[in-house]
Design goal:
InterPro entries: MMPL_dom, Mycobact_MmpL. It is found in: Cell membrane. Belongs to the resistance-nodulation-cell division (RND) (TC 2.A.6) family. MmpL subfamily. It is a multi-pass membrane protein. Its main location: membrane. The protein has 758 residues and is of the alpha+beta class. Helix content is 65%, strand content 7%. The chain contains 24 helices and 11 strands. Strands 6, 7, 8, 9 and 10 form a 5-stranded antiparallel sheet that branches. A 4-stranded antiparallel sheet has the order 2-3-1-4, with helices on both faces. A hairpin with a 3-residue loop joins strand 8 and strand 9. It is elongated, with a radius of gyration of 31 Å.
Length: 758
């Protein structure tokens, strides 16, 4: 018996109310910090969005140089539609309205300039005004620049005036206002909406599933209580991280989903084992004579029921140990992200590890305390059994798992033909993984927004109707004088797949910025990335500027991918080694950890393959409500690998813990596999079903990155809990037999000394 977990179980059993009270204080404090923060700035006010930063990369260095030399203030833009510029009377009316707008805007403290086609001599018909006139002659563009030190209120005042302007310019005219803060606010606002929608979908369905599994509201609510506490704690931890890391807007949703799913997983395991142990403890008590029960007393120290104490201590030394071990493996997997250069992956790694710690803390303290407070009521039939329709279902699912049942029969069937099951399952997983061979990565920015978003509409209108004002998909920063920069721009214009090149513009006193328009509508597609690579290759040519930095989505995407490839061997190597050591300390075997790693890689490949088929190739875009960007978000792939590997190991630990427990007791490998799957199969299936619901709930959101992550992680859990845990693992463990538990003598001695004991 593990003394640490035994002591923890004993202490919680004697102080359940204090434990719950401490959690109430923690949850309240974390929620207050996350929602209101310090000084009125909460977590969501401290998030940012945009291209993922890759410190030290060419695109990031160039972007920093441009930002450092930018002496202009914020720009706020308005696209006016529905004004016929071929109609002299309409032009005259719009011009008068624009003049009034100029006066109003320039009177606002912090406004530096206002530009539209009416400020030029000759108005919209002037050649100089062409950039501000719609190519369809049905609208015009207004640009307002703020002073660098403009007060915060200036932005909102300008936005209000611009929103009201179209109605004064022409009957039926409409407008779209945009700026960097507006785009960021819309992305973060959509994130908050998606978060609320995901929780609204996931939590009620999860509760319903657990009610059916456990046969009652009280028992089912405990993992959910732990999950809610973990969400609050996770948001509080993220608020703290926002002061030391740049948190991208997607971090909150991804980490919240992980915390919610793991908390329910761990809570289910603790509650299920406690139900098993309290039934056993109650049965043992019933066998005692009434005189002996009186002699022992119905209540132990401090009035605590000794049956509850024994049940909880046994639960913590078995399921508590398994949950802790699982959390360590998940945390190790996620911690691998800390070894990669991109800031978004570091923040996901740090925040993810903290949420895993909070999830396991709630499962090991809050959930057991609630179990003790409920006490022997868990032994009573649920009131739901009074409903005839539910009585049969709850009677079968709500009881403690029988010694023989569906999962033991399934394992027995697999053991009759293990080679057939192994080959068929491997072929299926391989076919599911095959789309990964054509995987394309994307680093989307505004493409993350839903198609019906006003800001997405604004960007599309500017690209189509105001090409001279649209930000080029590729920008080239050179350290050169204007003449040398122009010569280099002319050379870039000769490259294949380059549609046009904008004249160089000065950036500070030493640099020139060249806008490059590739012949494609996909800012991060193969054509754009090809142009970036060709421009970078020109840096070594004769007459090229000494320093060249290529910027934009495609360049950032290439640098992000290179950073992943550069850091992946170290990250994967350390995670694999740490996981291998942990599984060895748990099982004492060399083959079980190796097999687990290989199977999990195959499982992850299948999940990524299905996700690629869905999102890159655009299948199921209608039912899932998305428009394909031509690939998967690069950081989503990293998230799925890290988090998915951790979740797969989570279920591996759940299953192996019970198999090893029965193998140590019987020495019969095949029997241990059948009994282990029978005792853990229902919990693994229930936990997987709940976590699939959680991830699928968040996949109902509108942000494409969150949708991809939700679907991919749901698929990871679904594939792992069915094809892998139910079929592939029993087949391989049957084929290996007693070799499952083999290790050389020196390692057996090492395991005996340092093993993580039952």
């Amino acid at each position: 018996m593990c003394p640490v977990f035994d002591r923890l179980g004993r202490d919680i059993a004697h102080r359940p109310r204090l434990t719950v009270f401490i959690w109430i204080l923690l949850v309240g404090g974390c929620l207050t910090l996350a929602l209101t923060g310090v000084g009125g700035q909460g977590l969501f006010d401290r998030l940012h969005s945009g291209e993922p930063r890759v410190p030290g990369s060419q695109s990031q260095i160039g972007s920093d140089i441009v930002a450092d030399n930018d002496e202009t203030g914020e720009t706020i833009s308005l696209v006016v539609r529905g004004v016929d510029l071929a109609d002299a009377e309409a032009v005259s009316a719009a011009g008068r309205a624009a003049a009034t707008l100029h006066t109003t805007l320039l009177a606002i403290d912090g406004v530096e300039s206002v530009v539209d086609p009416f400020v030029f001599p000759g108005g919209p018909a002037a050649e100089e005004a062409a950039a501000f006139v719609s190519t369809a002659q049905d609208g015009f563009f207004v640009s307002v620049t703020l002073e660098p030190d403009a007060p915060d209120a200036a932005h909102d005042e300008v936005v209000t005036e611009l929103e009201e302007f179209p109605a004064t310019a022409s009957d039926g005219a409409t407008g779209l206002v945009s700026s960097s803060p507006i785009i960021t606010d819309e992305i973060i606002g959509q994130l908050q909406t998606d978060l609320a929608r995901g929780e609204a979908v996931a939590l009620p369905i999860s509760l319903l599933i657990m009610i059916v599994v456990f046969g009652g509201f009280l028992t089912a609510g405990m993992p959910l209580a732990g999950a809610l506490a973990s969400i609050a704690g996770g948001l509080g931890a993220l608020y703290g991280f926002s002061y030391v890391l740049d948190l991208d807007s997607v971090v909150v949703n991804v980490v919240t989903v992980l915390g919610l799913g793991l908390s329910i997983d761990y809570g289910l395991l603790i509650v299920s084992r406690f139900r098993e142990e309290i039934h056993a403890a109650a049965a043992a008590e019933a066998e005692l004579g009434s005189g002996e029960r009186r002699q022992r007393g119905s209540r132990g120290r401090r009035g605590v029921d000794p049956v509850l104490v024994r049940a909880l201590r046994r639960t913590m030394t078995t399921a508590g140990r398994t949950v802790t071990f699982s959390a360590v493996t998940v945390a190790v997997s996620i911690a691998g992200l800390l070894l990669l250069r991109p800031d978004i992956l570091k923040s996901l790694g740090a925040a993810g590890v903290s949420v895993v710690i909070i999830a396991v803390a709630s499962a090991l303290t809050l959930v057991p305390a609630l179990l003790v407070l409920v006490g022997r009521r868990m032994l009573r039939p649920s009131v739901l059994t009074r409903v005839p329709v539910l009585r049969s279902l709850i009677g079968k699912l709500g009881d403690v798992a029988p010694e023989h049942g569906f999962f033991s029969r399934l394992a027995g069937a697999v053991q009759k033909r293990p080679w057939v099951v192994l080959l068929l399952t491997t072929v299926v997983l391989g076919l599911l993984a095959s789309p990964v061979l054509g995987l394309q990565l994307r680093n989307s920015t505004t493409e993350m927004l839903p198609r019906e978003s006003d800001q997405r509409d604004f960007i599309d209108v500017v690209q189509a109707d105001y090409p001279l004002l649209a930000t080029p998909a590729i920008q080239v920063l050179v350290e050169a004088d204007p003449a040398q920069a122009q010569a280099f721009a002319d050379e870039i214009a000769t490259l294949p797949d380059v549609e046009g090149v904008n004249p160089p513009t000065a950036v500070g006193t030493e640099y020139q910025l060249i806008g490059v328009r590739p012949d494609t509508d996909e800012a991060g597609g193969e054509v754009a990335t090809g142009v970036v690579e060709e421009i970078r290759a020109l840096q070594t040519g004769d007459g090229a500027p000494e320093q060249i930095w290529v910027l934009g989505q495609a360049a950032n995407q290439i640098d992000f991918t290179d950073a992943l490839i550069e850091g992946l061997p170290w990250a994967v190597g350390i995670v694999v080694l740490a996981t291998f050591i942990l599984l060895f300390l748990m099982t004492g075997s060399l083959l079980v950890p190796l097999k687990a790693l290989l199977i999990n890689i195959l499982s992850l490949g299948a999940s990524l393959g299905i996700t690629t088929w869905i999102f890159q190739e655009g299948h199921l875009s209608g039912p899932l409500g998305f428009t394909s960007t031509g690939g998967l978000e690069s950081y989503v792939v990293a998230i799925v690998i890290a988090f998915g590997f951790g979740l797969a190991m989570d279920y591996e630990v759940f299953l192996l813990a019970r198999i090893k427990e029965f193998y140590d007791a019987t020495g019969d490998n095949d029997l241990a596999v059948r009994k282990g799957l029978q005792q853990s199969g229902r919990i693994i299936t229930s936990a997987a079903l709940v976590i699939v619901v959680v991830f699928a709930g968040f996949a109902t959101g509108e942000l494409i990155a969150i949708k991809q992550a939700g679907v991919a992680l749901a698929l990871t859990v679904l594939v792992d809990a069915t094809l892998v845990r139910m079929l592939l693992v029993p087949a391989t463990m049957t084929l290996l037999g007693h070799w499952n538990w083999w290790a050389p003598k020196p390692l057996r001695r090492l395991h005996k000394r340092f093993a993580i004991q039952h």
